[in-house]
Design goal:
Layout (H helix, E strand, L loop, with lengths): L9 H4 L22 E7 L7 H4 L15 E7 L12 H14 L3 E9 L2 E8 L8
Parallel strand pairs: 1-2
Antiparallel strand pairs: 2-4, 3-4
């Protein structure tokens, strides 16, 4: 995604220097590109501990590395049953996302469908570049 809002196939435009894995280096990008990390997690109707969710911190943007946008999706966040109010596990996973990513990330969108939760967080430095 660039400032103009166009999607680019990074692999076609640039030589890729990354390999898959959280511990390994990320791709080299031009200044007008945003990096995005997408996480899906099956919670099996059990709230994760802070220790279990601490891997979210690996996506923090520090010294030019990390992600500008982080999408966190949780499956089986709640038991499937009719509700009048949001369940405590849904609130818990969102609270962990905010806590682990830190104050430099702003939630842009939070959606739920039954037991599925999705939250998109944006780093404050690039907030003006995202529509």
């Amino acid at each position: 995604i660039t400032e103009k809002g166009y999607l680019h196939e990074i692999a076609e435009e640039q030589e890729s220097t990354s390999t898959i894995g959280l511990e390994e280096p990320v791709e080299e990008f031009d200044d007008d590109c945003l990096t995005c990390s997408v996480v899906t997690w099956n919670l099996a109707e059990s709230p994760p501990s802070e220790k279990e969710a601490s891997f979210f911190r690996k996506f923090r943007k520090i010294d030019g590395t990390g992600s500008d946008l982080v999408m966190i999706g949780a499956q089986e966040c709640e038991e499937i049953k009719p509700r009048r109010a949001e369940g405590h596990r849904s609130r818990h996973i969102r609270r962990l996302g905010v806590q682990m990513l830190g104050k430099d990330y702003v939630p842009l969108a939070i959606h739920s469908l039954g037991g599925i939760q999705m939250a998109l967080y944006c780093h404050r430095d690039v907030l003006g570049d995202v529509e």
